[in-house]
Amino acid sequence: MRESVQAEVMMSFLVSEELSFRIPVELSYESCDPYAVRLTFHLPGDAPVTWAFGRELLIDGVCRPCGEGDVRVSPAEPDSLAEVLIRLQVGRDQALFRASTASLIAFLDRTDKLVPLGQEGSLADFDAHLDEALDRILAEEQSAG
Q1: R_g of the chain, CA atoms, integer Å
Q2: Pairwise CA distance, residues 95 & 86, whole Å
Q3: C-alpha distances out from residue 12 to 32, 64, 76, 125, 127, Å
Q4: Cβ neighbours, 10 Å, residue 126
Q5: Rounded to an integer, what distance in angstroms lies between the CA atom of residue 55 and that of residue 126?
Q6: Which pLDDT belongs to residue 143?
Q7: Which H/E stretch holds residue 101?
Q8: How far apart are CA 87 and CA 105, in angstroms?
Q9: How high is the mean pLDDT in each 10-residue block of the chain (145 residues)?
Q10: What is the DSSP code (8-state) at residue 100?
């Protein structure tokens, strides 16, 4: 049975040090893909863009800088856990978003109630779910290209 958790939060899209604007971002998590969270960004004038990355990366990034490569998550201020920065990068292009830690924790708490952290691998028929998730990701990439 496929179960999911969704939330919509407002994030600041940090265009430069002087310019930022708030955008709606859909957060989603599905028990059939228990290791990943998806963030769909709704930028003005553009089609929505979805990024999928590890749920554990988002959990860890709330408290400390983490991530390598395309996705990095960290507290916005070293001495405060009030906001989180999410940096997404493709080649030389990057986008930086700032979100309320409280809204992310509320979403992550709901994902943990659906599939407790560390219990992801115990889901029945995980290989079939993984194949389904990979097929969906490939289809999303092909439709975006």
Answers
A1: 15
A2: 8
A3: 30, 20, 12, 38, 37
A4: 15
A5: 17
A6: 78
A7: helix 101-114
A8: 18
A9: 88 92 95 92 89 94 93 92 94 92 96 87 63 79 75
A10: E
